[in-house]
């Protein structure tokens, strides 16, 4: 489909970059947005944009539409992590998670949707997280923003299907990217939750660096296959153990599931 245009946010690294390259390899014209443009050509058309800056979103979308006439597939991938005890994370940091992970998705979607409605077709792909269904200690704000994205995606699925627009929501498990390494982490020694935080960090480091995480290119290939399948199914667990864990969350009573999660992260 060489005439199809893909616009993906958060394309500078991780699964966003891998998915931009994967879609480009399948002969799509791919525009990848990032706050800072790469020094070298990344393998797709780079676009300077910050999803939390609404003016920059409008400029980026207008520029693509001027050049291409349409955006056929929007992939809302940009996201950040905020880590720490709910009691100790600042309100500004909590808002940052929602500004990027929820309101950023909403703004970009609002900018792209009118063109899709006018054409009577398109696909909006939101990259959520297994954390949108399963909350672990010290990730409350990240999970909260991803829970909100679940609601946004489900409402949007209903609202735009009569216009021929598909909505897909990916719910990844652990992916081999730098997001955990790059996440600012409060010093455990200075926290009232020191012993719990130390256990949590140890478990997360092992999860992300111990070979369990699925490589980003593998996840990107799976995502691309699903997007191009034409499916109208909303939710799609991908990456390490996501399907199993989300299934267990659905069938197990809270008393059992919450105890298992707490035990795994040293809070049980």
Q: CATH topology, what is it called?
A: Rossmann fold
User: In percent, how helical is the residue content?
Assistant: 40-55%
Mean pLDDT rating = 94
Integer-rounded radius of gyration: 19 Å
Q: Please state roughly what percent of the residues sit in beta strands, choosing from under 5%, 5-15%, 15-25%, 25-35%, 35-45% or over 45%.
A: 5-15%
CATH architecture: 3-Layer(aba) Sandwich
**Cross-sheet strand order for the largest sheet:** 3-2-1-4-5-6-9
Give a short summary of the structure.
With 268 residues, the protein is an alpha/beta fold. The chain is 49% helix and 15% strand.
Characteristic terms for this protein:
single chain, 268 residues, alpha/beta, Rossmann fold, seven-stranded parallel sheet, two-stranded parallel sheet, 9 helices, 9 strands
Describe the structure.
This protein is an alpha/beta fold. It has one domain (5-187, 214-243): Rossmann fold. The protein has helices at 14-25, 54-68, 91-119, 140-160, 179-182, 194-209, 216-228, 242-251, 254-264, and strands spanning 5-8, 29-34, 45-48, 73-76, 122-127, 165-172, 175-176, 214-215, 235-238. It has a seven-stranded parallel sheet, with helices on both faces. The chain has a two-stranded parallel sheet with strand order 7-8.
């Amino acid at each position: 489909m060489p005439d199809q245009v893909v616009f993906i946010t958060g394309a500078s690294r991780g699964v966003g970059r891998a998915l931009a390259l994967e879609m480009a390899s399948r002969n799509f014209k791919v525009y990848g947005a990032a706050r800072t443009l790469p020094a070298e050509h990344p393998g797709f058309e780079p676009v300077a944009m910050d999803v939390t800056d609404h003016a920059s979103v409008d400029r980026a979308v207008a520029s693509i539409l001027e050049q291409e006439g349409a955006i056929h597939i929007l992939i809302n991938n940009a996201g950040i992590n905020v880590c720490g005890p709910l009691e100790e994370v600042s309100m500004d940091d909590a808002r940052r998670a929602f500004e990027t992970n929820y309101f950023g998705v909403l703004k970009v979607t609002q900018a792209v949707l009118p063109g899709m409605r006018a054409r009577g077709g398109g696909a909006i792909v939101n990259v959520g997280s297994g954390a949108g269904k399963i909350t672990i200690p010290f990730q409350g704000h990240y999970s909260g923003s991803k829970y909100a994205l679940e609601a946004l995606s489900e409402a949007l699925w209903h609202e735009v299907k009569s216009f021929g627009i598909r909505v897909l929501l990916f719910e990844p498990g652990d992916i081999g990217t730098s997001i955990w390494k790059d996440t600012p982490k409060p010093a455990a020694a200075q926290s009232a939750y020191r012993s719990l935080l130390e256990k949590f960090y140890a478990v997360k480091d092992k999860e992300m660096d111990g070979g369990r995480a699925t490589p980003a290119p593998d996840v990107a290939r799976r995502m691309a296959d699903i997007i191009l399948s034409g499916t109208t199914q909303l939710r799609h667990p991908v990456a390490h153990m996501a399907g199993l864990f989300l299934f267990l969350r659905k069938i197990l009573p809270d008393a059992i599931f919450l105890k298992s999660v707490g035990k795994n992260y040293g809070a049980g």
